[in-house]
Structures are given as structure tokens and as C-alpha cells.
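Troubleshooting log. The previous structure file for this entry was overwritten by mistake, so regenerating from the original sequence record. Sequence copied from the archived sheet and checked twice against the printout by T.R.
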Amino acid sequence: GSGVVELVDQNVAPGEVVKTPTADLNVVIPASLELSCLPHNSWTVLANREVVLKVGILDKEGNKVHLSDNLVIELVVDGTFFQVTSSLTNGTLHTGVPLVPGQTKVSATLVGAGTCTLATPVTTSTTMEILADMSLVPQFSFLPWDPVT
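Regenerated output below.
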């Protein structure tokens, strides 16, 4: 369904004419999930470098849905390849460290919100490719540069 939310200001006296801000509110059924790997938005990551896995919810038209605090989202990733160090209680954001080079499947499932469970949970998955950590030797390279030419 949909509706309009109106901001009521307690500092406005009754009968005083003031244009109050409003917003449209749409309640939709979740259609799909979106997985993101931050900070570079790439599923090819380096071992031993912290990344953030973000789960988003989309409606059937591809619009992003506001992520509430009472969501129940389960994230599954192989512990031999990836160690989750912290997570939000609603399951939308997970911080972790890729451990060893290889490929692993990352799956997220929206089970419901609060005590209300979905009849058909919404699921998505992707593959994380973990590469060996890289380092530059020497760490600094000084190249000549002539600002005049």
C-alpha cells in the first residue's frame, strides 16, 4: 500500500496556517536482494585486507527498499576462506577478512522482519574471488619530472 506522512510541529499554535513537509510512503513486497563488496565494489579481493559485505533489498521494479532495524537477513560464507569480524544485528552489513586465496560462495537470505517471516524467503548469491595479498617492492618509486616541459 501507500500513504502520505506529514510532519507535525508542536511549536505551531492550533489554527496557525503553516505548510508542513510531507513525504510519500510506499509499502512493498521484497523481490530481490543485492550483494555488494566494499570499499571497491568488486568481488575480487585481496587476502588479509578488510572488506565490508552489504546486503540491499529491491522491490519488483528495482527500487531500493529502506533497511529497517528488525530485518532478519542471514549471510552464509565459508569460514575457511572468509572470517566475519562484525555484523549488524539485522544482517545487512558484515565486516570481515578474506583468509586464503581461492573462490568461495557468498549467500544472503531475507527471512523476514521481526517476528513476521516471509512465506518464501528471498535469496541471492555470488562468488568471491580471493587473491594473494600484494606488495610493491620497493615501496616507493621516485620518477623524474620536469614541470617546465
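The chain has no helices and ten strands. Archived copy saved in two places this time.
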